[in-house]
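Retro notes
What went well: the complex prediction finally ran end to end.
Inputs used:
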Amino acid sequence: MVHSLRPIGAVAFGTLAAFPLAAQRNVPATYAITNARLVPVSAPVIERGTIVVRNGLIVALGVNQAVPADARVIDGAGLSVYPGFIDAHGTLGIPSPPAGGGGAAAARPSAPNSSYPVGLQPEMRVLDQLRADESGFASAHAAGITTALTAQGAGVFRGQSAVISLGGEEVSAMVVKAPIAQHVGFSIGGGGGARSGYPGSLMGVFAALRQELLDAQSYRAEQAAYNSSNARGMRRPDRDPSLDALQPVLERQIPIVFFANSQREIERALDLAQEFNLRAMIAGGSEAWRVAARLKRENVPVLLSVNFPRRTTAPAAEADPDPIRVLRERVEAPKGPSLLAQAGVRFAFQSGASSALGEFLPNVRRAVDNGLSPDVALRALTLGSAEILGVADRLGSLEEGKIANLTITRGDVFSREARVTQVFVDGRAFTIPDSPAPAAAAGGARGAAPPPSARTATGTWTVNVEIDGTTHAVTLALRQDGDKLTGTMQGAMGSGEIQNGSIGTDGEFRFTATITIRDGTEEGIFVGLLDNNALRGGVSIVGHALGRFSGTRPDANAPTATPRRPSTR
Amino acid sequence: MTKSARLLAVLALIASSAAGQGNRVSPILIRNATVLTVTRGTLTGTDLLLQNGRIAAIGTGLVAPNGATIIDATGRYVMPGIIDPHSHLMVDAINEGSLSVTSMVRIADVLNPTSVGIHRALAGGVTTINILHGSANTIGGQNATVKLKDGRSASEMLFPGAMPGIKFALGENVTRKNSNTVIVQGQPQAPRRYPTSRMGQAEVLRDAFVRARDYRADWDDFRARTARGQRGLVAPRRDLELEPLVEVLDGKRLVHAHSYRADEMLMLLDLADEFGFKVKTLQHGLEGYKIAPEIAKHGAGLSTFADSWSYKIEAYDAIPYNVAILMRHGVVATINSDSDERIRRLNIDAAKMMRYGGLTEEEALRTITYNGALQLGVQDRVGSIEVGKDADLAIWSGHPFSVYSRVDATLIDGEVFFDRSREAAEQAELARERAVLEKAEPNMVPGGPGRAGRAPPTPTGENN
């Protein structure tokens, strides 16, 4: 892939390459965007004004704002300038592990000084995993995203997140604030695959979370007793970085973000937060609207994914129809933001997955089409998001002194024709190239979801499961969000949602499903490998011999329709 | 108006009023039913008044209070809601099999109140289930006793006041005689988990309870010192693995032990005697009949299948007379489903107990009602039809032991949670909703012609 995106400033600084000190500071140029429609969010819209950016900050904006002599002038006629959009939860800035390189291990350096296993290490800092890679932010910039909350995407205790600017040649220059929060996921397997060991189930995840939080409480008591005056004669308590890292969570100094989508996942998260009196946030939240009253009552904000579920592939000819619950979820999800707003729940938008950045703004527009007011939608992209993440003092609105992260569009951002032309990140300008396929860049075409790629498990699979010599035909409808695998299994062994699904970057996946076999209801643990449009693996069921399964995604290569022609209507 | 049409209208009224008023339930008067009380015999031509979630009165010619809904049950049978002492319904996880002792995990953490199986169980007259951890390891997780209040949240479904419990497991499932670890190409195979024999299972249990005793002693010591006014003490670390086992030692948590063979059951009962706790139920216990006096002496109950055997080596010696023999020796015995499918027809499994071993009708009914309540420690609330007990009832079209009978309505705490007369209308409504949903944009194949579900592709490419 060719990135035609590069910072305009790079030309100016090219001549300074011989002066490392100056290059390190990387002082951006001064810009004035004139005659533009300015949308400060914190104040009324200025229909025709000028905004001046200097030294990485917004220094002035107004109707009759003078243009400084040293400024590069951008004619903003026909352009709208917004505070840079914030992706309120994701993994931007964390490099993907090399394919087939034992994904989880590469992405998760171990912390040998902790007594807790990989997956339960709250002391992990996303700062230690960030890489400066501006070209990697091209698709985020094209979606108008200048700022992101970045958190580790796998494990149970996932560690501490950071808010970063999506630009800069060094990690140290990218970080806006850290730590922002502690992150928790209810996924087993620490990044997909067949990790064995405790916790190996959703039940174990909750027990492990509870035990570690309790340990952190008694750790605090032990340390306090030892550090008090009468420590003499007391055995020195062990130092534990994992339990140290949980202290600000227990003291409510930083929030704890639970990755939870379904109503019951969200309720479990809220119950746990209540049990330990933690400051909770929900990330994902596709069914948060079902829990809106409680979220409002307990003042829990939602980092709401706009990666709304939808059908992505044609069903296999022999597949059972989708469960009505799945059909409902796809229709209801885009209404969620509006319902949350009505209930008074605070929320910030997130893209949901780095593969879904192209659909970020089109999906925000779908939320608006489904009843969300454009003002609230804009706040959830900017100032409202910054407030929830605790960075509103420096980001989120067009105000003098705030960080010059700007998103510039041609046309109002909520109009279908809108296109992001340029973003500013810490005062440096990035021009978005005209895409050869404007529909993809601006996301104008609704329903133009990308086809399932070979690297994603999303799609409808026809699978044969052999257990105790009997073959059972089932249909797997899978959906992959990052390392999370959700969906349904239907067929000869009963039907229901799959649980605890995860998938690694190398295609190794794992999920559990409740199956009824020979009159008994048991839990099947499916572990397998995904390879293009085939999957295979083993299924273990207590009391039964190891089963095998293999399946194909028959519709992936078949044309789902005749090629789309421009409509003549 | 025919009887069934009247019942339909009445039940529809109940459902709509219940939905409209949230948790406030109007009184219900069930008229002229044949009532299988289970503990007080069979009453014909009897009325039941349900008020405030309880059975308020049983008699003839009862007067309906203001606002009461009346159900004409002429020709119908009313029995206590069925209790299934062994189920894995409505959970997102069944086993935490990674360790041999996982007493720290809780089924209550992973309930799925949206499971369609709840509706199916209600359609079989089931109102209370005991959701157990699986049998992957010697000491499994904590179970949850649940009332099947379909449509409510998980916390509203937990049976208030039910005794906490825990799953133990013995025999082949624990040693993984019939299982293998999952092998993924290129991945190291998980090591086999200790124990791999019944000897090892006894050792795991003994070791765990020794640790639990020590842990209890640490806390007792801390509490005693604190009570004596000693200052500056740091409390012992709370251990979620050992806390439930201390509760078992203190008689505050019931043990439900998956077991098949007589020898392993005797081992567990001896070990429980050694540590001074009681095993509340032996689950499955297919060879229980061989040691019925020993089980009775310990005071354990037993919960089993009616006629299911030989599906693995340790199930070869099962006989359908198991329940009858145990009951004749004074053991509290029950029939369970262990299955999301069989849970819908526990009435027939109970009826088989009259055929095999000659239980009386009331004894056979007890195996799916009152005895289950005893095994879960909720006998004061459910399991029989008595004034003051929870109004958990199943109304049948005929005698529940007839294969021709069906459940007309299932009530929990005086509320209707299943109403067969509304099924057809609800199915039609779901079909209508599905038709609308399938035409919605997010359910269409992207970029394709307007289609969803399994309609074949059309070559015309007509858009919507």
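What we learned: The radius of gyration of chain B is 25 Å.
What to try next: split runs per interface for comparison.
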